[in-house]
């Protein structure tokens, strides 16, 4: 690059000589050229520094999100800083880790939503007149301990639902048995009535025969 710049300056000097520029005018134009070059370098430095700042901020933001996700999952954040790596490589590494943590959080959130939905459904089945109790899902607490608490609540509701169903079936069974007993009693009464009528008819016939 130095040889190319030197060649361009030589060509510029030749042009100025042909034009008849004085040494003072040449010095002014060279100073302007130097200032323009410095300004270009300065802009490039500012741009490069801005890009470096963005990379560092992206790394910090990604690390912060990983810490937040770990906290929500109830886990201890791991040390992710790779000081010996270039910023691009470090960001690439942390971005991969972040994507993995996001997937884990989404899976855990799906487990929470499934349990909460079951709790709502069973609560509505048990007490339709009252409606299901509202369960506020805190996405900042997706720990296994919290999930286990909700699962225990679901287990209790499922047990209550089964017990309620057993009581209902026992009630239905008792009602059907009562209806069956009443039906059989009516059949027995009808049978007895018919038998009594037959006996009365036979008795009347026998009396008539004896009279002859």
UniProtKB/TrEMBL annotation:
<protein>
    <submittedName>
        <fullName>Uncharacterized protein</fullName>
    </submittedName>
</protein>
<dbReference type="GO" id="GO:0005819">
    <property type="term" value="C:spindle"/>
</dbReference>
<comment type="similarity">
    <text>Belongs to the MAP65/ASE1 family.</text>
</comment>
<dbReference type="GO" id="GO:0005874">
    <property type="term" value="C:microtubule"/>
</dbReference>
<dbReference type="GO" id="GO:0005737">
    <property type="term" value="C:cytoplasm"/>
</dbReference>
<dbReference type="Pfam" id="PF03999">
    <property type="entry name" value="MAP65_ASE1"/>
</dbReference>
<feature type="coiled-coil region">
    <location>
        <begin position="140"/>
        <end position="179"/>
    </location>
</feature>
<dbReference type="GO" id="GO:0000226">
    <property type="term" value="P:microtubule cytoskeleton organization"/>
</dbReference>
<keyword id="KW-0175">Coiled coil</keyword>
<dbReference type="InterPro" id="IPR007145">
    <property type="entry name" value="MAP65_Ase1_PRC1"/>
</dbReference>
<keyword id="KW-0493">Microtubule</keyword>
<dbReference type="GO" id="GO:0008017">
    <property type="term" value="F:microtubule binding"/>
</dbReference>
């Amino acid at each position: 690059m130095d040889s190319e710049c030197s060649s361009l300056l030589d060509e510029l000097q030749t042009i100025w000589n042909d034009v008849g520029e004085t040494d003072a005018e040449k010095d002014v134009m060279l100073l302007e050229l130097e200032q323009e070059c410095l300004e270009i370098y300065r802009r490039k430095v500012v741009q490069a520094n801005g890009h470096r700042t963005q990379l560092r901020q992206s790394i910090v933001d990604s690390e912060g999100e990983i810490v937040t996700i770990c906290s929500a999952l109830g886990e201890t954040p791991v040390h992710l800083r790779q000081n010996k790596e270039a910023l691009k490589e470090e960001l690439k590494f942390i971005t991969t880790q972040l994507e993995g943590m996001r997937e884990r959080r989404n899976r855990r959130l799906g487990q929470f939503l499934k349990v909460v939905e079951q709790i709502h459904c069973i609560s509505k089945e048990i007490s339709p007149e009252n409606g299901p109790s509202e369960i506020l899902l805190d996405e900042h607490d997706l720990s296994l301990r919290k999930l286990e608490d909700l699962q225990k609540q679901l287990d209790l509701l499922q047990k209550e639902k089964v017990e309620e169903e057993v009581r209902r079936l026992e009630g239905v069974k008792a009602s059907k048995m009562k209806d069956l007993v009443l039906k059989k009693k009516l059949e027995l009464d009808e049978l007895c009535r018919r038998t009594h009528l037959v006996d009365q008819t036979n008795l009347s016939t026998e009396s008539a025969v004896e009279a002859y």
